[in-house]
Amino acid sequence: MKSYKLNEIEYKRILGRNIISADRYETVNLYWGASCVEVCVKASEVWVNLSSDYDVFEIWACVEVNGFQTARFIVPKEKQWICIARNLNPNVENLITIIKDTQPMPDDSKHLMSVNQIGLNESGCFVPLKERKYNIEFVGDSITSGEGLAGNFNEGDWITQWFCAGKTYAVKTAHLLNASWNVMSLCGWGICWGWDGNKEHNLPSHYENICSVLKAEESSNIYNNYNFPVQNDFVVINLGTNDNEAIKQKIYTDAAEYRPKIIDSVCEFLKTIRKNNPYAKIIWCYGMLEINIVPSLIKCGIKKYKKLTDDKNVFILKLESREKLEKADYEKGARGHPGEKTHIAAAKKLAGFIKTIDNL
Fold first, then answer.
1. Which of 57, 206, 289, 341 is most deeply buried (CB count within 10 A of its CB)?
2. At how many degrees (to 10) do helices 255-276 and 241-248 cross?
């Protein structure tokens, strides 16, 4: 086997928020769920050297070959070689995608997945990757992090084994559209507050940083501003479920208190997204889990933003719910979250919608 440090591989693609010039380092660190390293090879055998760091929540990774998942496993703490493809046709180009399947964990004092080297059989080689049609960013909560996409429907433990960021509607949408993806999502967080009303658990306040939700050392570069090196063609937001849950739990009992907060936060978040994505079409999605309070407030926030800015490239899209789609137990996701059937339906609807607005 021939091994290559990441900066020795000319043809590679790094997806997900990362530090400036991440491709120039010997090792590529991945932070957000669904972040990945992609290579295209003409080789019969492919290995990857991985390592991780964590205190509580182990990190899972998955592997795709030509857009289809072929493996999923816990990333070892110590550097270790893992065979991720074998007996491939060496005369055929194969796209290999190594995906961080676990979202960042703010409650873990250490959290890191590192892709250290990639190995090929002696005669194997890397070849140029085909360009993708779009760049799409996804911002969301546990649904976008893939919570519940592994495990039996009645699993109740909150553990990383049940998170599959590589199987979500976000990655499926990207595949349907031949798009590169960038995901920023965190379980339990919302537009204004988390599921329990914690006002610090809002994604918009972290949007302009690399991965400031983690409890890294203050000197860590993940607290730095994200420089948006790739211009997104679309930004898809799927936030609001946890804000809705907090209100349902009577953490906020007075509509006069929570209503303006959500409306104003939606408006301000759209301003921030537009500042950093001047040419993107922005789509706010909801509905994969049924919510009854927040959608009307999101619509009001979008209306307010449009009135202030005259921005015609902001849309809202209702997706089909888990409650309506998943009838049999085997169709249901774990921990009360959408299963793959709902994610597939969402990806199809979202991809179709993107096609309709692409040339507007």
1. 289
2. 170
Q: Which of 122, 118, 124, 57 is nearest to 90 (CA)?
A: 124
Give per-residue burial for 155-192: e unless 16+ CB within 10 Å, then b.
beeeebbbbbbbbbbbbbbbebbebbbbbbbbbbbbbb
Q: What is the mean pLDDT of residues 59-78?
A: 98
Instruction: Assess contact for 202 and 243: CB atoms under 8 A.
Output: no
Distance linking the first and last C-alpha atoms of the chain? 50
Q: How far apart, in whole angstroms, are the C-alpha atoms of residue 202 and residue 118?
A: 36
Distance CA 299, CA 293 (A): 11
pTM score, whole prediction = 0.97
Residue-wise pLDDT for 189-223, tens only, equals: 999 999 999 999 999 999 999 999 997 665 578 88
333: pLDDT strictly greater than 60: yes
For residue 337, give the amino acid letter: H
Query: Cβ contacts of residue 87 below 8 Å, gap of 6+?
Result: 44, 45
DSSP state of 274: H
Q: How far apart are CA 165 and CA 35, in angstroms?
A: 9
